[in-house]
Fold this protein.
Amino acid sequence: MPQSDETLNDLMNYYGSLYNEQTRLLGTWGQVEFARSQGIIRRYLKQPPALVLDVGGAAGRYACWLAREGYEVHLVDPVPLHIEQAWAASAAQPERPLASCTLGDARQLEAADELTDAVLLMGPLYHLVEVQDRHQALAEAYRVLKPGGHVFAAAISRFASTIDGLASGYYLDPLYRELVLRDLAEGQHRNPTQDPTYFTTAFFHRPDELADEVAGAGFRVTALLAIEGISYLVQDLDAVWGDERQRAFLLDLIGKIEQEPSLLGASPHLMCVAEKPLA
């Protein structure tokens, strides 16, 4: 069930040659995103043993972490390089390897009905730019989940490129200005350059749009949360993150405002946690 040739080619080109997703969560900003996402997932995910399907799991950072925690984790991703990287990451933890890594499409999963205790959608909802494709991915997540299981659906905020552009100075580039204006008007993010700094073809959600799409698939929305929140305002984040006490305070502070409606859209990434009803 391929997307348009243009969208699919952009995705493969970006992750296959322009950008190394394997390193994205290793920098300080990525570590904030990863730590916050871990905390949210831990809050709602049932204790092991349990089966987790990581859809769009990329190079396996979340999948390998959950495998180390004792979960049976199956990773699915459409990018061949990501599958290679995920298998390599799995091999580096032979005592807790991934159960499987396979090429696949979020809209047409190979898993059986009501198989898994949790589904991670940490990337598909912003790489599927058409609403019907996102609906199909969520419908597939619903299908493969056991009743009472949770979906963890991440999205990029509609305002992410505006905030990033103003903070970085990218807004001075006329091409970036066009990109931002389309983001704000339509949520459709298009990069007219080969510069990976400007990301790739994607859809950026308003917070309420994300919750509505998840609920529209039949899920009961448990929480709509800011992941990084406004942590990008921290001065000298490297020093803060390197200090255990300051890092703990920062994460606690982000957590205290994670559901504040007036600040949700100001977070680069959002997380919708939802449950498949028991009946």
Remarks:
- The two ends are 30 Å apart (CA to CA).
- The chain has a mean pLDDT of 96.
